[in-house]
Amino acid sequence: MGPYRPADGTARPAGPSAGGRRPVGEVTRGTTNPNRLRRVDNWIAHRCAGLLRDAAEPLVVDLGYGATPVTAVELRRRLAAAVRPDVRVVGLEIDPVRVAAAQPVADPPGLSFRRGGFELAGLRPVLVRAFNVLRQYDESEVAGAWRTMTAGLAPGGVLVEGTCDEVGRLAGWLLIDRTGPRTLTLSARLSTLDRPAALAERLPKALIHHNVPGTGVHALVRALDDGWRDAAPYATFGPRQRWIRAVGAVRAAGWPVVDPTRWRLGEITVPWSAVADGPPAPA
C-alpha cells in the first residue's frame, strides 16, 4: 500500500473487501524479494516472543506484502519455528489481483490471504508487520496510518513499521503500540556494510526527512558512523567485532542503547524519545 499512481496519474480506487469493509490505503509498487525481511522477522521472533506466546490467539498480520506473497510465507515459517507452531499469519493487500495470486501458497489456518489495508480488514492481531509501506506515503499521512493500525490491535498488541533496501541488507524499523512509537532499531548485514551512514537511507518514513543537523536521529547516525570509523582497528577481527565496538562507543557517549545481546547481529536499538524529532505520536 502506497501512493502508487497508474499512468494517468489517478489513484487506484479501493473498493469494498469481501467482508464489506472498504480497505484504507493505496496500492504500493509491490517490489519484494525472498529473505528481504529476514532481519526484522528474526528481531520480531526475539523481541515479541513473549507477547505471541502469551496470546490466546497468536494472530499476526503482514500488511502490504507486495506483488508476491513470499515474505508472508517466510514470516509464518520463522515465527512457527522460533516462537510457537500455532501462530497464524494473515497477509493483507488492497490489490485483489495480488490476493488471488497468493491463494495457491495459503495453508489455512496457519497462513491465509485477504483484501485489506490500514483498517486490518476487521482483524484483531497481536502484531502487525508493515514494511516498505509508509515509505511510499507522504510524511503527513504517517501519524494517521499509525492511529488506524494500532486502533485495530488486540489489547497489548504492537505494530512493527519500517523499511529496508531491496535485498534486506540495510533496514530500520519502529516498535509502536497504542501510545505511539517505543523504540527505533537500525540493522545492517555487517559483511557488506561500508559505513553505518548508509542506514540513513532506510530510516522509517517518520524520521527519514528529519535526518538533518540538530535532530536526534541525525546525531545518532553520526555517532554510530563515528564509532565505526574509530573502531577501524577492530576490522582485523571481522566486521562483527568492529560493529560491537562502534555501538559500545555510542552507548558510552550517553545514548540509551538497549539490548546488547543483539549488537553482534548488526543491530542497534534506542528508545523513541532519543530520536523523536519527527511527527507527533498518534493520540
Automatic annotation (TrEMBL):
Keywords: Methyltransferase, Transferase. InterPro entries: SAM-dependent_MTases_sf. The keyword Protein biosynthesis does not apply. Gene3D superfamilies: Vaccinia Virus protein VP39. One of its GO terms (molecular function) is methyltransferase activity. Residues 1-33 are annotated as: Disordered. One of its GO terms (biological process) is methylation. This is Class I SAM-dependent methyltransferase. It comes from Micromonospora zhanjiangensis. The lineage of its organism: Bacteria, Bacillati, Actinomycetota, Actinomycetes, Micromonosporales.
